Amino acid sequence: MRAVVALAAVLAALGVFGASPAAPADSGLTNPKHFFWGSTTPPSPDALTNDIIYHGGSAGPGAIGVEIKPAVYLIYWGPEWATGFSVTDVNGRTFSSKTLQNYLNSFFANVGGSPWAGVQTQYCRNVPAGTTSCAGIPGAQFVTNPKHQLKGTWTDPTPVPDDIVTLGLAQNLVDDPIAMEAMRASAHFNYDPDATYIVMTPPRTIGTGQPVYCGYHTQTTSIDGLGNPYRIQYSFIPYLNKDWIIGSCGANSVNATSNSFGNGVFDGYSIVVGHEYSEAVTDPDNFFSVQDGWNDDQTSENADKCAWYHTQNITLAGRQYAIQPTWSNEAFDAGQDGCAVSR
Question: Which domain does 49 fall in, by range?
């Protein structure tokens, strides 16, 4: 999502001063993130009228530009995931957290090799900054679309801070609890520079002034003395139920009636995790707010440009999942809708 450059400005705009300690103004240790705002904040119409551009893939040590061989690890953080909890849809029907985990695990187990994930394979690295098409460029290293991209799931029963949503908004790199959980996950599994570690938290009370985002992706800083031994891509998905920011994170937005698999009640989860996954693949690096992968002149990434636009079901291994399109320079340059669901 769009990088938030000034920590103080973000906190002031969202009214979260006092909810958690902000970084000192002169510390320089902010952790800008790429936020996915709710459906009440759609992208600008201008987002649908320009290409995304490659920005060089050179933002700091360990920059990768794009994920060449995408992989995903799912982290269910908090004791509630281990003991189980209930989720209620817009019609009052109740589902278990185990059903939600199965829905997400199945989505990522089957998204690799799909036409939807194939849209991102037109993007690459090892090409000049300013490139809008990798076609025909010698040495271009393209994003691939392998099957079996889900490499592991982990239910981590350690406690989650009560104010995790606010703390996850903007913090010192050394203090960000989501970054630390992602680091623990990379130790639990294996370190993979092409992987995205997706951290999901259980239900938490939504307090006055808490931010109105559905998720974000970012990247830890590496060997620069800020507390992280290496850089990894990670994403934070807070609990997304029908009441979260007045339901604007997609619950039952594609499927009005839920079924036993979770279509409907978990529409928002597949939309949001799909959004963050596709952006982490094509624009993974985030080094002190510098985005060096694929994004447009307004720093909108491939999923930003199509956020909450033509959301729909796709079929993976015989099951349906709600998703949004992602941006295709190839389609847009051919005179088609740039928001594509297949390639």
Answer: 2-340
